[in-house]
Amino acid sequence: MMTEQAVIVTKNLSKWYGDVRGILGVSLEIPKGITGLVGSNAAGKTTLLHLISGLLKPSQGEVQVLGESAFDGTHFRRQLGLCPQKEALYQHTTVLEFVSILTELHGFSPKEAKKKAQEAIEKVRLSHKIHQKIETLSKGMRQCVKLAQAIAHKPGILLLDEVLTGCDPLVKHHLKALFHEMAQEGATILITSHNLKELEELTDKIVVLDRGKMIAHGKISELQKQSKKQKNQISIEGENLRSLACDLLSYNDITGIEIQEKGILVHTQDFEAFSLRLPGLFSEKDYKIKKIMPVTQNLESLFRFLVGGEH
After folding, report:
1. CA distance 115 to 72
2. Domains and CATH numbers, the chain
3. Which DSSP letter does residue 126 get?
4. 67-102 tens-digit pLDDT
């Protein structure tokens, strides 16, 4: 049974394409609000979204959306909006015609659909292109057209696959504000993105997929606390630091050093031991140090740790 807070539930969900694994044994619960779906190429993100939307039938396990089977259910579909990564736009139609046609498929009359389409197009700030043919639009504008058709019927659940890709900074800023507004009004939004910094600005809840398996699920802050084995990173800026890099590599807690434009980036498994060692090293040799600063752990570093731990 679905918990009171969960809108989307998967249980031991798997999908195979012949001998190729799409996802394997994914069990999770998605509550209201914004949840980020993180993973490398071919990690299974799009497959998971298509299973949730009912476009694909599971090979094993089940998906429930609002308590219904995602593949066999019907009532939840009017509450679902999907913005796919792949473009399937009617290039020779205008923006208004395209969004209106797809809105009619949700059961609205042509007049109602046109009104809702106009409202959605305005929300994504594309009103100035409303009568322009889709084939003439830029990549970012076509992304907004796809989003407009996904939100025109005012769904409570929104599945967004790389929706911000190709959008300019101003459009991205507006769309992120729109997603926050929808979430505050009670929507459930599951969004994928290759830009982890953008995703971190949208939500603190993530699902991490790697080669079809779910390897983490929860709040970013909680996952960071749980990853006690994560290597600390320290940025050291200065001049002629290659000698320092060679000296540091002789210690067991140092797992790697990257040479950067202004200095070096040190990876250590024991930040305390590293910190205690530095004064002695600096007194022995005349290193020209300008700045020493721990690198703040963010979603990208957490993702690298989680995925790296699975390989």
Report:
1. 30
2. 6-226 (3.40.50.300), 231-307 (3.30.70.260)
3. -
4. 999 998 888 888 999 999 888 778 899 999 999 999
